[in-house]
């Protein structure tokens, strides 16, 4: 296939995969946070802080994917 | 395949995958919130707040997918 | 394949995938709500409210899929 | 393949997938409702109400699939 | 492939998939009902009622599949 | 492939799939019934009744598959 | 492929699949019966009766597969 | 492929599949019997009897597969 | 492919599959026997006897596969 | 395919896979940290420190993938 | 493919599969033996004996695979 | 395909796979360390030490993959 | 493909598969040994002995794979 | 494909697979060691020793893969 077509494929595959992995990972983390707050409501502060740091690190991967997708669509060196 | 066809494929694949991953992740988070509220009804406030932040972060990924899908259909640089 | 054929494929793939992911996610959330109400019948109010917010957010993904499907069938820019 | 053939494929794939996802999700919700009623027989009222709302939301996805299937067979704009 | 062949394929794929998903879902619901009755024999009434409503909703999906299968075999608009 | 060949394929695929899904579902239901009777031997009556209703509903799906298989072999409108 | 070859394929696929699904289902049911008898040795009678009814219903599906396999080999209307 | 080749394929596929499904099912049943005897050594009699009936019914499926395999190799009506 | 090549394929596929299924099944049974003896050391006799009967029945399937493999290599009616 | 096309494929595959694996791994680690803080709020310090070291090591793998992706797009020795 | 090539394929597929199945099965059995000895150190004798019998039976399947592999490489009747 | 193209494929496949396996393994190990510190905060020292040795051994595999990837891109003997 | 190429394929497939199966099996066994020593530190002797025998038997399968791989590369009768 | 290309494929497949299997196995073992030390901090010595022996045996498989990969790249008898 020609590079233009592959760039389009790359754009949607990257965001698709970047939606599956991090979404499952974040879902798990959020679910655990729910249970943790229910068990120790007075520890909601450190739990939330740790959760947000973790979500931020997982979210970066979804953003790497989005960046590669936009880069393939609008700043592709080969297309 | 030509870029137009690939853009159509990309549109439906992106929303499809963007519906599977985040839906499962959110389902898990919501399920955990249910159990958490049942265990600590008086902590429903911080649980709901943390849940909504988490759902928002997971939902962004589904929206990335929708954005890429619409972008491929209506603002595709190669088609 | 030509864009018309791909649009038909896209329509049924999108609703199919949009039925699998959200259905499983919602099933899980509803199941957890059942258990939560059984454990704390007097907390049925906040549980139901949180459940309906969560279901609404998950349902939006199924609707994104339906929208893309209808859009591919009846307002396709390439077909 | 020509659009007519794809419409036939689309019709059976859509109902097939629309039968797998929602069926599993509803099965899980109904199973949880069984356990919930067994644990709190006097809460059968709110459990049933929440269950029926949830089943209705999951069932809509199976119906989206059926609608797309019938639409592909009898009101296909491309075939 | 020609539409006649695809209709035959559609017929058996639809009933096959329509047998897998709902069967697993119903199996799970029935299994939960067994356990529920064993835990609360005196609640067999509301458990059975809720079970039958749930089975009916799951069974409808198997019937959608059967309907599409028969419709493809005997009332196919394209074959 | 010609319709005759597809009918043969359809016949064995339908019974094969119609054997996997319902068999697993019924196996689960029967297993749960075993445990239920062991926990409440005096409730063997309502457990058996509910089990048989459930098995009957699951068995119908295997029979839909068998019917489509026989129908494809001996009363196929296209072959 | 010609109908004769497909009949041979059908014969071994049907018995193969008819051996996987029911075998797993029956294995689960028998395993549950073991545990049930161990928990309530004096209820071995009703447990065995229910088990044998269940195994009989699951076995019918393996037999449907065997029947279709033999029918494809020795009484095939198309070969 | 010609019928002779398909018969060879059929022979090894049938025994292969006939070894996977029943072996897993029987392994599960035997494992449950181990645990059952450990919990109720004095009920080893009825447990063994029920186990052997169950193994016999599962074994029949492996034997159906062996029969079809031998039948394809040595008494094939089409080869 | 010609029958000789298929016979070679058949030989290694049959033993491969005949090694996976029974090995997992036997591993499960042996593991359960370990736990059973640990819980009831004085019941090691009936546990071992039942285990060896079960292993023998599972092993027969691996031997069916070996027999078919050797038969395809050295006594193949079609090669 | 030519090296340019393969570089595009490589870029999106690497970030996609680099989003799935580490995201799941980090999600699991964060989830465990949530539960750990809930059980021992006073040990939030060492838990957070160990978590951040672990996340950093897992994140490096996602970054290896991003580096290879950018390297393939902008500093490819073969394209 | 010619018989020589197939024999090479057969050799590595057989040992590969013969390494996966039995290794998982043995790993499970050994793991259970660890737990069993930890629970009943004084029953280490019968546990070890039963374990070694079980491992021997599982190992035979890996050896069947090795035998077929060597036989295909060095004593192949068709190559 | 020519060796240059294969080297590019090799580079991204190796880092992709080298990101999935070790990331899941490390995620599991880190998660277990979280729980362990929560249960025995005073044993944080040996737990951390053992964890870091384990992570180092798992990380080496990701680095083997990175090394092979860079070696294929910049020091390939065949390209 | 020619025998030389197949031998190369065989070499890496055999060690790859021989690394997956036994590694998972050994990981499970070692994990169980950890738990066992933690529960009965004074039984570390027989646990370690049984573990090493088990690991040795599982390791043999990885070595069979390595042997076949080296044999295909350096002592292949067909290449 | 020619042997040179296959050697490149072999190199990255071997390290990829050699990273997945052992990484998961080691992750499991390390995770179990964490839990074991948390339960018996005074048994950290024998636990660590057994863990390191186990990790060494699992690591050997990853090294077999690396050796085969390097051997295919730099000392291939057929390329």
UniProtKB/TrEMBL annotation, chains A, B, C, D, E, F, G, H, I, J, K, L, M, N:
UniProt domain V-ATPase proteolipid subunit C-like: residue ranges: 9-72
Keywords: ATP synthesis, Cell membrane, CF(0), Hydrogen ion transport, Ion transport, Lipid-binding, Membrane, Transmembrane, Transmembrane helix, Transport
Protein name, UniProt field: ATP synthase subunit c
SUPFAM superfamilies the record matches: F1F0 ATP synthase subunit C
GO MF, one annotated term: lipid binding
One Gene Ontology cellular component: proton-transporting two-sector ATPase complex, proton-transporting domain
Family: Belongs to the ATPase C chain family.
Topology with respect to the bilayer: Multi-pass membrane protein
Primary residence: membrane
Subcellular location: Cell membrane; Membrane
Residues spanning the membrane: 51-75
InterPro entries given in the database record: ATP_synth_csu_bac/chlpt, ATP_synth_F0_csu, ATP_synth_F0_csu_DDCD_BS, ATPase_proteolipid_c-like_dom, F/V-ATP_Csub_sf
Superkingdom of the source species: Bacteria
Site (Reversibly protonated during proton transport): 59
Biological function: F(1)F(0) ATP synthase produces ATP from ADP in the presence of a proton or sodium gradient. F-type ATPases consist of two structural domains, F(1) containing the extramembraneous catalytic core and F(0) containing the membrane proton channel, linked together by a central stalk and a peripheral stalk. During catalysis, ATP synthesis in the catalytic domain of F(1) is coupled via a rotary mechanism of the central stalk subunits to proton translocation. Key component of the F(0) channel; it plays a direct role in translocation across the membrane. A homomeric c-ring of between 10-14 subunits forms the central stalk rotor element with the F(1) delta and epsilon subunits.
Gene it is expressed from: atpE_1
